[in-house]
Amino acid sequence: MEMVIGITAFAVALTLISSLILPQASRSVEPILQARAAQLGQSLLNEISGRAFDEHSDRAGGLLRCGEDADRPEDGIQADELCTQPAALGCEEGGTNKDLYDDVDDYLCLDGLSAAAIFNAATADASLLKDDIALYQGFMLGVQVFYDQNMDGQADAGIGNLKLITLTVTTPMGQPIVFSTYRGNY
């Protein structure tokens, strides 16, 4: 009889542990993954924001914005060099090689890639990232870049002076964390 009571008490205790305490263990890792996602997202968003507004933007001192009406042949500036059309925004010949990215919409090439694949594709800063690859296993990235002149979060049909950059970092547990910023044509 004492043996039956002991086994029953042990079964009740084991049931409580497995149903109440063990699920908390998986939640304890969520803040760590969220912090890593925030670090990865902020780092990439800063990198993207540091690029030129458009493929046709002046990268030599910012004398002229794309789409601006100014004709100064003596400076090598052509009039009315239009910004890239909304339908033409996206990857260039570089693919996932971030060293070849020169404007914000080139980062659309990273959409749907894992963080490890992005680190492995980097060449110029690879020595800084090799130690970090293991920290970001299982993280996925989503990148969207589009014109959003009226700042409503919806893609505009025409060219504007603002692009919305949205970066979604998905943790290995499937939690999406979204980062957004605007890049102006200045």
Q: How does this model look, in words?
A:
It comes from Bowmanella pacifica. This is MSHA pilin protein MshD. The protein has 186 residues and is α+β, with helices and mostly antiparallel strands. Among the domains are: 55-84, no CATH class; 90-186, no CATH class. Helices cover 31% and strands 14% of the residues. The protein has four helices and three strands, in the order ααααβββ. The protein has helices at 2-28, 30-49, 115-121, 126-129; strands at residues 140-147, 162-170, 176-184. A three-stranded antiparallel sheet has the order 1-2-3, with helices on one face. A hairpin with a 5-residue loop joins strand 2 and strand 3. The longest helix is centred in the first third of the chain and has 27 residues, at 2-28. The chain is elongated.
Radius of gyration: 24 Å
Strand order of the largest sheet: 1-2-3
Tally of strands = 3
Strand content: 5-15%
Principal-axes geometry comes out as elongated
Q: What pattern of helices and strands is seen along the backbone?
A: HHHHEEE
Residue stretches low in confidence (pLDDT < 50, at least 5 long) are none
* Largest beta-sheet characterization: 3 strands, antiparallel
Query: What percent of the residues sit in helical stretches (DSSP H or I)?
Result: 25-40%
Distance from N terminus to C terminus (CA atoms, Å) equals 84 Å
Overall pLDDT score: 82
Number of helices: 4
The SS-based structural class is alpha+beta
Protein name: MSHA pilin protein MshD
